[in-house]
Design a protein that fits this description.
By secondary structure, this protein is of the alpha/beta class. It has 3 domains: about 5-175, Rossmann fold (3-Layer(aba) Sandwich); about 185-350, TPP-binding domain (Rossmann fold), CATH 3.40.50.1220; about 365-550, Thiamin diphosphate (ThDP)-binding fold, Pyr/PP domains (Rossmann fold). It is built from 23 helices and 17 strands. Strands 2-1-3-4-6-5 form a 6-stranded parallel beta sheet, with helices on both faces. The protein has a 6-stranded parallel beta sheet with strand order 13-12-14-15-17-16, with helices on both faces. The N and C termini lie far apart (about 70 Å). It comes from Nonomuraea typhae. Its EC number is 4.1.1.47. Keywords: Lyase, Thiamine pyrophosphate.
Length: about 575
């Protein structure tokens, strides 16, 4: 059969039922195979970076491997940002690129670029198919690698002459390659339990690895059995219900709560699950580490000790570790009731809060998140990216279930939300999907609204518009400058409502906090009625700030909010 038909058989058997991309001359053999065999829905994007973010959102939502497709040359280079985002956040994804004919690669042929070498730093594996007979097996291995250990992206480059060939392949006797389980070494589980039981003020730090392993139920079971408070990292947000009495917030220099920082600073042991100790979480390491004992559990061995050496490192899938630890505790007959430490954490949570019930005009950002929390339920899927609104989201927005709060945490590419929301909605067509965006990042990949309109992909966009590059403006104050951060050029800057209408979508602008809730209600109904994206643009105060970025959580030990938040 044609080599690309073999590839399509592999894609379908690996659970791919939708792909995102755009055709070009060098990748047409794959598109022909997709047309002939069917079974994979395809959304034609307006920019290849958009395709990668759609595949990313799709994969974050259902845990499968997302697929983005592009042709040769700039199609591949346009995908690099999406690959970087996926590897930074451990998202399984495969990018497929067409390539000039093999014999022309050394002759600077049209759109011939060594995309494999370009992509290597931002992928788990980047490979070019040099022999047509390798095609199905390289794709099998790509899916195995994308899923294995710490998940991540793979790039496969296919020269057009290779793609046109026929090979011997029988899909009826083929299947996905197995992914090995990473189980904890029992003596280390024993040691971890001993350390937890000896600690007076332990906390569990739930990272993105808990969500990737679908380990939220096991986390809740352990926390309740041993009565250990739980914090989440930004990537772990949603892994533990934020309304649970054992939840004790987020620690960090930006996306954090006051009670989270305070709880962390009073703890004496941290059990970190699938967390990478990112710098915005830790701040200055000597303060973060303090006199605390650390147990670090991660599926990727080289993550342990990368930022600092823990007192105990355990290589394991987080779900398998939690099952082993809980099972061991039950074998020993260990079960606890809430004690003084849990009471202390709950007291901090009651007292060290940030105000949200502002009625001011212009609107203050925390009020927006108060309305979001009260209107949307915990089955809603949220996507958000980078800037002041990511920080406000970390501080104020609640997440009750895994995979419902999705954020491009480490790479932080502007424009991620619109394509990611498309991917989420394609993965969960029945769900309500909401993108929380800023006025600047909204325009980076705004052209992907056309994709949502073309394929009837409805979602709600909530924009916090301060007409500035808000976070950069705030950071620039440290340089005694205020240069090139104002994007306001008429009454509204860009008329974002008209932009939505130009794409066949709808929108409304809100300046009064009393109108936020009715506008959210209208947007949710309008998106459902039209099967198109709908924007609620909320004009917030232009000088809005988050708590000023600091280099150490020690600086927030006695932290007081800025006047805007009092």
């Amino acid at each position: 059969m044609p080599a690309m038909e073999a590839v399509v058989h592999v894609l379908k058997s690996e659970g791919v039922d939708v792909a995102f991309g755009c055709p070009g001359a060098a990748i047409l053999p794959l598109y022909k195979a997709m047309e002939r065999l069917g079974g994979i829905e395809h959304l034609i994007v307006r920019h290849e970076e958009g395709a990668t973010h759609m595949a990313d959102g799709w994969a974050r939502t259902n845990g499968r491997v997302g697929v983005a497709i592009g042709t040769s040359g700039p199609a591949g280079t346009n995908m690099i940002t999406g690959l970087y985002t996926a590897i930074a956040d451990s998202i399984p994804m495969i990018c497929v690129t067409g390539q000039a004919a093999s014999a022309k690669l050394h002759q600077e042929a049209f759109q011939a670029v060594d995309i494999v070498e370009i992509a290597k730093p931002v992928t788990k594996w980047a490979v070019q198919i040099k022999e047509a007979a390798q095609a199905p097996w390289i794709f099998r291995e790509a899916f195995r690698i994308a899923r294995s250990g710490r998940p991540g992206p793979v790039l496969i480059d296919i020269p057009v002459d290779v793609a046109k060939q026929e090979i011997a392949y029988d899909p009826s006797i083929d299947a996905p390659l197995p992914v090995s389980e990473v189980r904890p070494h029992p003596p280390r589980v024993e040691r971890a339990l001993d350390m937890l039981l000896a600690a007076e003020r332990p906390i569990i730090l739930s990272g993105g690895g808990v969500i990737l392993a679908d380990a939220a139920p096991e986390l809740a079971e352990l926390a309740e059995l041993l009565q250990i408070p739980v914090q989440a990292t930004l990537m772990g947000k949603g892994s533990f219900d934020e309304d649970h009495p054992l939840y004790c917030g987020m620690t960090g220099i930006q996306t954090s709560q006051r009670y989270g920082n305070a709880s962390f600073l009073e703890s004496d042991l941290v059990l970190a699950l699938g967390a990478r100790f990112g710098d915005r979480h830790t701040g200055t390491l000597d303060v973060y580490r303090g006199e605390r004992t650390f147990i670090h559990v991660d599926i990727e061995p080289t993550q342990i000790g990368r930022v600092f050496g823990p007192d105990l490192g355990i290589v394991s899938d987080t779900r398998l570790f939690l099952r082993a630890l809980t099972g061991l505790a039950r074998e020993r007959g260990v079960s606890r009731t809430p004690g003084p430490w849990v009471a202390r954490v709950q007291e901090l949570r009651r007292t060290l809060t940030r105000r949200e019930d502002f009625d001011d005009i212009p609107i203050k950002a925390p009020r927006v998140y108060k309305e979001i929390n009260e209107f949307f339920d915990d089955e809603t899927y949220f996507v958000t990216a980078i800037g002041l609104y990511q920080i406000w989201g970390g501080q104020h927005q609640k997440a009750g279930k895994p995979r419902r709060y999705q954020v491009c945490g480490q790479a932080g590419p502007l424009g991620w939300e619109i394509p990611a929301a498309i991917g989420v909605k394609k993965a969960r067509p029945e769900a309500t999907v909401v993108g929380v965006v800023g006025d600047y990042g909204f325009q980076f990949l705004v052209e992907e609204l056309a994709v949502a309109a073309q394929y009837d992909v409805p979602f709600v966009l909530v924009m916090l518009n301060n007409e500035y590059l808000g976070l950069i403006r705030q950071a620039s104050l440290g340089y005694a400058m205020n240069y090139e951060v104002d994007i306001h050029y008429d009454e509204f800057g860009s008329d974002n409502v008209k932009i939505m209408e130009a794409y066949g979508c709808a929108g409304t602008r809100v300046s009064d906090p009393a109108q936020i809730r009715p506008s959210l209600e209208w947007a949710a109904k309008e998106a459902q009625r039209t099967s198109r994206p709908v924007l609620v643009e909320i004009m917030i105060e232009r000088e809005a700030n988050t708590p000023h970025s600091v280099s150490s959580i020690d600086a927030v030990r006695e932290f007081e909010p800025l006047p805007e938040q009092v």
